[in-house]
Amino acid sequence: MKDAKTFAGTIENIKNRLASKNLDLFINIRCDTYILDVADKQQETNRRLKIYGTTGADGIFLPCICREDDIAAAVSNTKLPLNVMCIPGLPGFDTLQKLGVRRVSMGPFLFNKVYNNIGDLSREITVHKGFSPILS
């Protein structure tokens, strides 16, 4: 992870350059404190959220955050809309909405599931010597 202030400066510079060219691009800052399991991750996340909130960014993405109290703390420490990633243990949509989460990314999970099923279906086509497995 980059130094929070250095990274914030980079994001601020990007947003300023976009604005100077009348370009509107949604910048969703990724903060990897949870996915990297840094020490004191909730405290470090809150520190970074405050810094990143000054950059002009449009959103914040916290992959691998899943505990309700951590999510609530993150939401309360930023004005940016919070994006989380589906992982085992993540609360359901209703709870996430009540906590203030604005977006959920599926990460690799949906694609991995689809690719696994493609392999199974391909084997079924071979076994059945026809396409009935994908047409039924």
How would you characterize this protein structure?
By secondary structure, the protein is of the alpha/beta class. It folds into two domains: 4-105, Phosphoenolpyruvate-binding domains (TIM Barrel, Alpha-Beta Barrel); 108-136, no CATH class. It has six helices and four strands, in the order αβαβαβαβαα. Strands 1-2-3-4 form a four-stranded parallel beta sheet. It is elongated, with a radius of gyration of 20 Å. The mean pLDDT is 95.
Please give the order of strands in the largest beta sheet.
1-2-3-4
Q: Tell how many strands the DSSP assignment holds.
A: 4
Give the low-pLDDT segments: none
Write the element-wise H/E pattern from the N-terminal end onward: HEHEHEHEHH
Give me the CATH fold name of the largest domain. TIM Barrel
Distance between the termini: 48 Å
Number of helices: 6
Which architecture of the largest domain per CATH?
Answer: Alpha-Beta Barrel
Percent of residues in helices = 40-55%
How much of the polypeptide forms β-strand, as a percent range?
5-15%
Question: Could you give a short account of the major beta sheet?
Answer: 4 strands, parallel
- Supply Rg: 20 Å
